[in-house]
Design brief:
The chain is an all-alpha fold. The chain is 49% helix and 1% strand. The chain has 27 helices and 2 strands. The chain has a two-stranded antiparallel ribbon with strand order 1-2. α3 packs across α8.
């Protein structure tokens, strides 16, 4: 198996390991002495391959990673109404889009597809024509990082194998629900597809298929009401109610007199398509998961990168060889020196070296410095909590509400523009939206149900429970200044014109709220020294006449908070 030279080399080194002497007598360096260098070079190559494979974009997507989870939430919030992963909906299927288009192209397309179509981009024009000229909603609000997260999610879902439709092992027949799915509901028809698009565009904001939302569940409406009645109701429900139609009046009263939007723009054919879609969805039973919670025939995609593991193990083996061969060449060098009559330096034992006076003195000095630094930093940071992100009683995501949904900060924290405290919103404010929104993109009904429990809301009856003892939500405070510090939100927000992010950081990117800034005295003082006061068109500073004159004459270029007394002790401590 080995060549003669290889066998000679191997036997020579085995003898050396056994007796600890040099196998050759030549004073010159031979090829054997270059072995450690050869192994070191080979080790570097292997480690380079290992790092490259481990971090490769072709590695399996980690579905437990932050990028995948954020991408999933963003996809469901922004894309799922018009796209499915493996099927065509209003737009093309999402799966594999990262292989069909470049990342730069996807960023431009998601931000504003019509700009690309108007510019004559061949791929954009082809997609536009293929999907019947349907205009995709522009998502100019999404950041590059958010679009990258969506692409990561789609890439992960594209790798997942589709569930097999084969019978289970052992020849058992598939369950009845699987066999019955789609019975009497042809979802390939043109009416179904058009109805699906119309339903999602016009009805989903107030209706769900199998649950109550603002209005009744849609499923089965074709069995409860005649087609003629549904046409009248969808075109203008209030006309039916005013005419005293008993069915219309009953629905109106049941849903707290909520007025349904009239859809006079829909033609009879379009309403028929919506009814056909609802009929098909009503007849298709919901998929039932088999025991154990795993769908038959499906398999979770493996995220293990075996190639990276192989190269990692090989790197460790080569490192061991390198250490052994380095020790061998050291012995060879000593043996050669001895044969040539040269001086062999006495090697100090590791124990004596580590416990020498110089080493001990250096370590002692280093320990004193590190201990002093640690004590000083501990004293400086006493009571400060930068990056403090406690668990909250409800998993509320500022990223979803302030980032994805673009809800203004002061809609919830209304006190920020009116007084000292920004205030924590009462649960009743949450109910303005969550009377209708019962499921979140990440936690489903679990966290929203905690709001219902606090205020006594019955999501089935769409009404508050009578004589219910409401419970406060015990939020954990994140930002906390000492009692001897005076801080007024409105002075900074209204008079100063500051954005919330100046002190609180990029809240719109935080799933879990954390303290962004130190909020210590030095941080505040530095801000007051550097921040320019907005004198222009701000009546709050109209009394500073001298400074206004100096600004106009060019005597001073700007006015900072420090210039108007912002660093005086009594401004914050009195």
């Amino acid at each position: 198996m080995f060549s003669s030279s290889s066998r000679t080399l191997l036997s020579s080194y085995l003898k050396l390991i056994a007796v600890g002497k040099r196998p050759c007598q030549s004073p010159a360096h031979c090829e054997y002495c270059l072995l450690p260098e050869f192994f070191f070079a080979f080790l570097c190559i292997v480690v380079t391959f290992w790092v490259g494979i481990t971090t490769s974009t072709f590695a399996a997507v980690d579905k437990n990673g932050d990028a995948y989870k954020k991408g999933e939430a963003l996809y469901k919030a922004n894309c799922a109404s018009c796209h499915k992963m493996n099927e065509k909906l209003v737009g093309p299927p999402s799966a594999g889009m990262h292989t069909r288009y470049s990342k730069e192209w996807l960023h431009k397309w998601i931000r504003n597809s019509q700009d690309m179509v108007k510019a004559g981009d061949p791929q954009a024009v082809a997609v536009f024509k293929e999907n019947n000229g349907a205009i995709m909603t522009p998502f100019a609000n999404l950041t590059d990082a958010e679009i990258d997260n969506i692409i990561t999610y789609v890439e992960g879902e594209s790798e997942a194998p589709a569930a097999a439709a084969a019978a289970p092992a052992g020849g058992a027949a598939p369950n009845a629900a699987t066999a019955a799915t789609g019975a009497g509901a042809d979802k390939s028809t043109d009416e179904y597809k058009k109805g699906e698009a119309l339903y999602k565009a016009n009805c989903t904001s107030c209706h769900k298929m199998h649950e109550k939302l603002v209005g009744p569940a849609s499923a089965g409406m074709h069995t409860r009401y005649s087609k003629e009645w549904l046409h009248k109701w969808i075109h203008n429900s209030q006309d039916l109610i005013k005419a005293g139609d008993p069915q219309a009046v009953a629905i109106f009263k049941e849903f707290n007199s909520a007025v349904m939007t009239p859809f006079t723009n829909l033609s009879d054919a379009e309403i028929d398509n919506i009814i056909a879609y609802v009929k098909a969805e009503s007849e298709a039973p919901s998929a039932t998961a088999p025991a154990g919670g795993v769908t038959a025939g499906s398999a979770a995609p493996s995220s293990i990168n075996y190639l990276a593991i192989i190269f990692g193990v090989l790197a460790v083996i080569l490192l061991v060889f390198l250490l052994v061969l380095s020790r061998i060449t050291g012995r060879l060098s000593d043996s050669l020196r001895e044969k040539m009559g040269k001086f062999i330096p006495i090697k100090t034992s590791s124990e004596k070296m580590w416990f020498s006076k110089k080493i001990m003195a250096t370590l002692a000095l280093l320990a004193v410095v590190l201990f002093g630094y640690h004590m000083t930093q501990g004293a400086i940071n006493l009571g400060r909590q930068t990056n403090y992100a406690p668990d909250q009683p409800i998993k509320f995501s500022h990223k979803l509400h302030a980032g994805t949904q673009k809800i203004p900060c002061q809609y919830c924290h209304s006190g920020a523009a009116k007084g000292k405290s920004s205030v924590i919103p009462a649960p009743n404010l949450c109910m303005n939206c969550h009377k209708a929104i019962k499921k979140g993109p990440t936690y489903g009904e679990t966290e929203i149900a905690k709001i219902y429990n606090a205020v006594g809301w019955d999501p089935e009856k769409m009404a508050y429970k009578e004589n219910y003892q409401q419970k406060p939500i015990e939020w954990v405070r994140v930002h906390n200044l000492p009692d001897y510090v005076y801080f007024n939100h409105s002075q900074h927000v209204v008079a100063g014109g500051l954005q919330c992010q100046t002190c609180h950081g990029p809240v719109e990117e935080m799933d879990v709220l954390k303290q962004h800034s130190t909020l210590n005295m030095g941080w505040c003082v530095n801000c007051h020294r550097q921040t320019e006061v907005q004198f222009t068109n701000n009546n709050y500073y109209s009394t500073y006449e001298k400074m206004h004159e100096d600004l106009k004459s060019g005597k001073i270029k700007k006015v900072t908070v420090d210039d108007i007394g912002g660093t005086e002790c009594m401004k914050c401590h009195y």
